Amino acid sequence: MKSRILLLLINLASLKADQTPFSKNTADPGHLCCNKLFESLPSKVHLPGSVEYERQQYDYYSLQQAELQPSCRVTPTTSSDVSLIMKTVTTNLCPFAVRSGGHSAWPGSNVQGGVTLDLSQLTIIDIDEKRGTVGLGPGSRWKAVYAAMEQYNLTVVGGRSPNVGVGGFMLGGGISLLSFRRGFGCDNIVNYEIVLADGTILDVNATSHSDLFWALKLGSTNYGIVTRSTTREELQVIIIGGGDEIVSVWHASLDSVPGASLTDTPTIADSTRTTSLLNLVGDLQSSAFVETGRRRTYTLTVKLDAPFLWDVFKHAKDIFDKLEYVSGMHWYLIYQPITKGFPIKSSETGGSPFKVFWKSPMTT
Ligand SMILES: Cc1cc2nc3c(=O)[nH]c(=O)nc-3n(C[C@H](O)[C@H](O)[C@H](O)COP(=O)(O)OP(=O)(O)OC[C@H]3O[C@@H](n4cnc5c(N)ncnc54)[C@H](O)[C@@H]3O)c2cc1C
Question: What Pfam families does the record point to (predicted)?
């Protein structure tokens, strides 16, 4: 961690202005596109060594992503910009990546030698009280969305972590603290604005391009670049939850007598309280989740079965306790129940590819 900060300071000392000359490295696969894009969007194209390029590179959740070096980073501010960028990269066959919140735990939103579209400037939060919807830019992060909506006593079916981006979350299902009642985040979308590979800008919803609408709910980057997700508003909810003591709460609840309330169970330490979604997701802001570092994430989905989950925890503890001496290493085990409320909501709102896998209550 210390060496990373030092590296950044050294980089900052040698930075040039953003208007760096065009890339001359013809062996670089992104060279042609970066030069073309620099001609049409000069203030939005950032080449290696510029302040903005280095700032964006540093702003990834996982180090594996930050270490990839695109030929340039492009920061569109409108869907027309995204359209122009898509036409350029597809016509000239340049490798590219799309980044919204940059919270993938694996290299998914940056590219080595190519064009990275950084959507972090597309942060609109457009509340339409008449229609009961909110239009969200993919670069918005959930903390900002909840804060904007709470002023109107409203909220949305969004992420549990304050810094996750709307873009990746809404294109990967999206598990929310409201999902038990409202399904996945994607089940609440009423319209995607998307830019296709040929640059066409489309509105996609239950009546217009409905097959694409269905597929986008777990679509990631595969069908185009989403520049706005319009989702249903919810009335602000008050939630019982806690920040840092999840394992102890699980332990306690698994051992407790059937029917006992969660709040009656003994815990090692207890930070549970009744509070707003904004405050609850804020708990994760200060946790080790947000430290910069190298990540490895694995997921397993099984039939809901409490003794099995308890076994998994004990095995994980056996493995990781032996690695306690490794400095800076953290491990997390997160159980996410997928209860019957999830697919019910999905059916009500036009279905999603997830429905294909659903058999019975599960835990991921
Ligand atoms: C600490 C932490 C907490 C998390 N909490 C939750 C949670 O509560 N619920 C949950 O469901 N998930 C959660 N996740 C997983 C998270 O939702 C996914 O990793 C999500 O893909 C991150 O989205 P992003 O925009 O921040 O990431 P990015 O890395 O920017 O993007 C992720 C992927 O989506 C693609 N993509 C992003 N934006 C667009 C776009 N506009 N158009 C097309 N493709 C796009 C990218 O190319 C990339 O492949 C969490 C992850 C972390 C690290």
Answer: FAD_binding_4 (PF01565)
Closest CA to 276 of 235, 238, 233, 234: 238
Helix (H, G, I), strand (E, B) or coil at 306: helix
In angstroms, rounded to a whole number, what is the distance separating the alpha carbons of residues 15 and 101?
A: 25
Closest ligand 1 atom to residue 221 Cα is 44
Rounded to 5 degrees, what angle do the CA atoms 42, 46, 52 make? Answer: 120
pTM for the full predicted model: 0.87
Kindly give the distance from the C-alpha atom of residue 145 to the centroid of ligand 1, in angstroms, as a whole number: 15
Instruction: Supply the pLDDT for residue 336.
Output: 86
For 218-235, how does the pLDDT look when each residue is reduced to its tens digit (9 = 90+)? Answer: 898 999 999 999 999 988
CA-to-CA separations, 323 to 11, 89, 163, 285, 296, in angstroms, rounded: 34, 45, 29, 26, 15
The residue with greater pLDDT, 251 or 274, is 274
For residue 305, what pLDDT band results from cuts at 50, 70 and 90? confident
Whether 113 shows a pLDDT value over 60: the answer reads yes
Q: What residue spans of 14-141 are helical by DSSP H? A: 31-40, 51-58, 63-66, 79-91
